[in-house]
Amino acid sequence: MDLNTVADVRDARLREPWQPGDAWLGGGTYLFSEPQPQLRRLVDLSRMGWEPLILDPDGSLEIAATCTIAQLYRFGRTLSAEAAPLFSQCCRAFLASFKIWNMATVGGNLCNGLPAGPMISLTAGLDGSCLLQSQTGATRTVKIVDFITGAGRKVLQEGELLRSVTLPARALDCRTAYRQASLYGLGRSGALVIGALDPVDGSMAVTISAATVRPFRFWFPLPPTKGELRRVIEATVREDDWYDDIHGLPEWRHHMGLRLAEEVRHELTQLSRDGVR
């Protein structure tokens, strides 16, 4: 779609002062998908030269904001970490064409902040942290579960940039379980739940997204019982935290969130009991 209010496109490397009506341009798959009458200038990140994916010596993974879904998918297929299957599972949750996969970025999906964003699900499920950079060059680190505060809402300040996301080595070594539900065979995620079992201390994390306005990550020092998991979810996720749109009523999302959370808990608990690694 043509953005007929945009008068200029600037190279982000020039570091010019931020102006009202500016927007960061990554892959542009969202920006050019619908009218953006508030925009006057796009600041293009495509020439920043950031390495898409860096596997650090300590085993943690840094994902640049400009990393495309296609790059992440290919990397996940070669990754030897226990949690590697989540990369392809969440990439496929896009249900997008190869053209979108080759343009859409991890950072763009996170910064849209939509409940069904599968990169939000992936990075929240693996305890990821965002590196944010202000216009002055100052940086701060925020957990993904704190970065998204509601449907389409983030903690980004005016002109602030999402530089990268880091997934800790401990999370990448976790045994994972994945469940996703939609009202339609090729529809947007109505509920997406990720479970992660830590082989070091036996702790378990269950992350609910898509069904809720923001991701909720529940951590347990030992695998919880069915009743414990349900009680914690019900006590934490408020009634108005269950998302409501054309892709699912809150009541349905509530039901599916609880159901899928129990499924991943059961799968990982069985693996733990069986000693499967």
From TrEMBL:
Ranges where the FAD-binding PCMH-type domain occurs: 1-172
Q: Which InterPro entries match?
A: Diverse_Substr_Oxidored, FAD-bd_PCMH, FAD-bd_PCMH-like_sf, FAD-bd_PCMH_sub2, Mopterin_DH_FAD-bd
- Superkingdom is Bacteria
One Pfam match, by short name? FAD_binding_5
The record's PANTHER family line, in alphabetical order, gives: XANTHINE DEHYDROGENASE FAD-BINDING SUBUNIT XDHB-RELATED, XANTHINE DEHYDROGENASE SUBUNIT C-RELATED
Q: What is this protein called?
A: FAD-binding molybdopterin dehydrogenase
